[in-house]
Amino acid sequence: MKLKFTKMQGLGNDFVVLDGINQAITLDREQIRKLADRHFGIGCDQLLLVEKAEGQADFRYRIFNADGGEVEQCGNGARCFVRYVHDHGLTQKNEIRIETLSGVISPHLEVNGNVTVNMGKPIFEPEAIPFIAEKRALTYPLELPGQPVTISAVSMGNPHAVRVVPDVDNAPVDTEGALIESHPRFPKRVNVGYLQVLGRTHIKLRVFERGAGETLACGTGACAAVVVGIDLGLLDHQVKVSTRGGELTISWQGNDEPVWMTGPAVTVFEGEINL
Ligand SMILES: N[C@@H](CCC[C@H](N)C(=O)O)C(=O)O
């Protein structure tokens, strides 16, 4: 099978984007892993599939982690998605509605090339983060080999555990992040964010992503971290998030309001690959 693809990135969180409207695509887990492999494939953190919507939305957006698992949401990918469908002539609209496994989100392409996305409201319900019975992102203990840690949990459609740390550059993102990602209390596994508060409107963030390991940035991770920071009374309603790959702006007015994310989306190259 020959596949046309586009390599994109949002703050260094990188994607292989495939047009599933103009080419027939059926990929199994192994094929996705191969495409995502940085040595034997194209290389990416996530593979994004553009499809026709089944409902009223403009498109359907499917997301696969580098390990081949399909997931509910991807924030940096949502910005790349709108850039992709626009640049490839699949729509003329600057604002589109896209179906994801966790509902409809609406990205908006700005005149300066940045993209703003209404990411929907954060979810604190126990169904989203199964072991948490309360509706707030308060702090919970989690048993890990060696020592318990405290986490706050929130879903942005996909599950996130957030740790507030004093020095994110020296946080054990790879080691502890991997243990929390596959902790038995998260049966669907979890993305793990390490948040350092630099001020009421500025945080530094690193994320160990479920199914991909540490990435240079995670859009839903940034939303989750800011929601947790606001909920814990540490942050104002609009926050600059510095990641290893660059900066995002996240805002949330609280309660049932949606979370807004603004940041860049960039095409790196296009190509064709034999699978
Ligand atoms: N990089 C993404 C999140 C991708 C999915 C995540 N790894 C998961 O498993 O939920 C983002 O920018 O949000």
UniProtKB/TrEMBL annotation:
Record's subcellular location: Cytoplasm
Site, Could be important to modulate the pK values of the two catalytic cysteine residues: residue positions: H160, E209
Main EC class the enzyme belongs to: isomerase
Gene3D superfamilies from the UniProt entry: Diaminopimelate Epimerase, Chain A, domain 1 (3.10.310.10)
GO MF annotations in UniProt: diaminopimelate epimerase activity
Species per Swiss-Prot/TrEMBL record: Nitrosomonas oligotropha
Name recorded for this polypeptide: Diaminopimelate epimerase
Active site: C74, C218
UniProt entry keywords in alphabetical sequence: Amino-acid biosynthesis, Cytoplasm, Isomerase, Lysine biosynthesis
Pathway(s) where this gene product acts: Amino-acid biosynthesis; L-lysine biosynthesis via DAP pathway; DL-2,6-diaminopimelate from LL-2,6-diaminopimelate: step 1/1
Record-level GO cellular component terms: cytosol
Primary residence: cytoplasm
Protein family (similarity comment): Belongs to the diaminopimelate epimerase family.
